[in-house]
Amino acid sequence: MKPVVLIGFCLFVLFGFQRKSARMSWRDGHTLSWSDFQGLPSKGSAFSASSNTGISHRFTIKSTGIIDKSKSIIKANFYPKLSWYKPELIDEFTLKHEQTHFDISEVHARMFRKAVAEFHFTRNSKAEIQRIYKKIESSRRKMQSQFDAETEHSVNREAEKLWEVKVQALLHKYQPWAG
Questions:
Q1: pLDDT in tens, 84-114
Q2: Which of 7, 9, 29, 5 is nearest to 17 (CA)?
Q3: 154 φ/ψ sector (left φ>0, alpha ψ -120 to 50, else beta)
Q4: What is the number of other CB atoms lying within 10 angstroms of the CB of residue 104?
Q5: What angle do CA 97, 132, 114 make, to 5 degrees?
């Protein structure tokens, strides 16, 4: 059947919305560099850097009212204009920490792709996709916060290494749902 309506929207962007051209999608083998951080540091922030990441989803609803899974596009994104660093406070560990934040968003994008692939949608697809998203987004936020707490925002190098291994293992686990 022909698609009736194409709905494209960004499900989550931490701290604001950006134009499509102002985001960078996660790509296997590509790592962030400091030149990707184009925002201005938050005044009064004690942090040395901040990466703004999120998940976007574009989908099509068929004339039956059911989502067309084959046209579902889910991406983990980095938002350069909302990401920043303080040159005098950063080092190689800081950049790895920020990369891990981006990787955590990619893990959750893969989890979202898996959930969409396995879900049996009905004519209530819009509400169903929102419920799936909310669950994934809640998990993503929780993991991001836990990562910062346990690593003390990249100060605890031992914890940082453990998290890097954990996130890489999750990327591997969800490899079948890579974008």
A1: 999 999 998 999 999 999 999 999 999 999 9
A2: 9
A3: left
A4: 24
A5: 70
Provide the terminal-to-terminal Cα distance of the chain, rounded to the nearest Å: 25
Q: pLDDT tens digits, residue range 9-39?
A: 333 333 334 444 599 999 999 999 999 999 9
**Do residues 24 and 36 lie in contact, with contact meaning Cβ atoms separated by under 8 Å?**
yes
Token pair of 23 as six digits: 């985001």
By the 8 A CB rule, do 14 and 52 touch? yes
Buried b (16+ CB within 10 A) or exposed e, 143-168: bbeebbeebebbeeeeebeebbeebe
Q: What pTM, to 2 d.p., does this model score?
A: 0.87
